[in-house]
Amino acid sequence: MQKKNYMKYQYLFYLCALALFFSSCGSSDDGGQPLSQQMVESQALQRTLRNGELQPLATDFWGYVPGLVANSVLKTWKQYPEKEEYYQVVKAYVDHNLLEGDSVRVGQHNVDDLAAGKILITLYAVEMEKGNVEDAMRYKRCVDFLRNKLKYNHRRVAEHLPGAGRWIHKAHYPGQLWLDGLYMGPALYAEWQHYFGHENGDADNMESWTDIALQFDVQHQYTWDSEKQLNYHAWAADPDDPNAFWARKEEPFRGTSPEFWGRGVGWYFAAMVDVLEWMPKNHPKRPRVEEIAQQVAAGLVKYQDASGSWHQVLQYDASKHADGIGDTVNGQVFNICDNPNYLESSASSMYTYAFLKGVRLNIFDRATYLPVALKAYQGLLDNFIVEGEEDGILNIIQSCNSAGLGAANNLSRTGTINYYLCGQDTWINRNEGKAIGPFIMASLEMELLKKGNKK
């Protein structure tokens, strides 16, 4: 009886939260034009800032940041098909980057370079429907190239090491598994399998889905801290490798990086929800991927700030500062400052998107997690979205420029709190592509929710 009453009151709380949100100033359409469209037109189409460089989307290079922004623009067009300009800019971006041989420029074992391939699947379908078979088949051949490069040619952790079979992050990070990589590779692989997996037969399709699930299983096995309920940013199969100088050398977390980085977990969380959107309901590995997603969701709730957002270094609030002493590596000192931890927009946007989408897809319990998602979306608006006083365009502030671990030629990337708050590449940005794209996708999910709530 007590459990039934608890569930009843929890569900009533969810209904009240939903009603209050949509009757408040936190509505997603901001008095008319949806916020997704406003951010597309204010930032995504005009300028793509990635790692400090500014470039219009249509002529940007092939990479995960422009690809993320392009994917968010394409998703907005799919939800609002009257915005034909959005589609045309994404098509121009792909056409600008296609090489002879219907491929794109990617590194030999660089998983980041694959992520933009997701947009090719939609372009293929749309151009085929238009009868533009020539362009459609170019897009199909390119996405096939990217999927096959990952499945067959991307370097994996060697059989004699723990974590065998998992794709490494990049060639110059041998044996290293980063949370970021799950969004870059498996999410593309999963969408390809959904649309084209039948081409290679049922047995290959089943094996490919098992391969995708393995990536999450291995990553979670080695980076999940069950006490903190968070995933460490990265793990090295060989922590004694000079390129993994940042890795812990002792159990119980041998090989992990020292801290929980907000955006790293964001890539991971969003990747699982995206993969589960496409993964067959009857695949025997699906329950494991769902279990991991639910563990991550429950952990993130613990660290949600009262404002609705999350911090750059997840396990701390704004009272935590870098130590002012820095990190000593091989006799050199790096990352000296006493900057405070801060609410970070790209990670908060990724979590909001994943919570909202996960609720919509019934991956997460609606009564439990929709209030979390509503609070998170309002946090985005309150903490990070600023309208220009003179031009009226939307800006998104307070995102981490970049972050990584090592390698041996970059000893400053230590993975400590000092690094994430003081590192030479971790400065705080505004209107960065890694925040723009997830905010647009979170807004699209909120707009879907609001539309459904009005029916």
Please indicate the percent range of residues in DSSP E strands (runs of 2 or more). 5-15%
Stretches with pLDDT under 50, minimum 5 residues? 25-30
Count the helices. How many? 15
Q: How helix-rich are the residues, as a percent range?
A: 40-55%
Shape descriptor reads: globular
Reported for the largest beta sheet, the result is: 3 strands, antiparallel
Number of domains: 1
* CATH class descriptor name: Mainly Alpha
Structural class comes to mainly alpha
Mean of pLDDT = 93
Q: Which sequence of strands runs across the widest sheet?
A: 9-10-11
Can you give me a brief rundown of this structure?
By secondary structure, this protein is mainly α.
Helix/strand layout:
Blueprint: H1 2-22, H2 35-44, E1 48-50, E2 53-55, H3 64-79, H4 84-97, H5 118-130, H6 133-153, E3 176-178, H7 181-184, H8 186-196, H9 202-223, E4 224-225, E5 230-231, E6 234-236, H10 262-278, H11 286-302, E7 327-329, E8 332-334, H12 345-360, H13 366-383, E9 385-387, E10 394-400, H14 417-422, E11 428-430, H15 433-454
Antiparallel strand pairs: 1-2, 3-6, 4-5, 7-8, 9-10, 10-11
Helix pairs in contact: 1-13, 2-3, 2-15, 3-4, 3-15, 5-6, 8-9, 8-10, 9-11, 10-11, 10-12, 12-13, 12-15
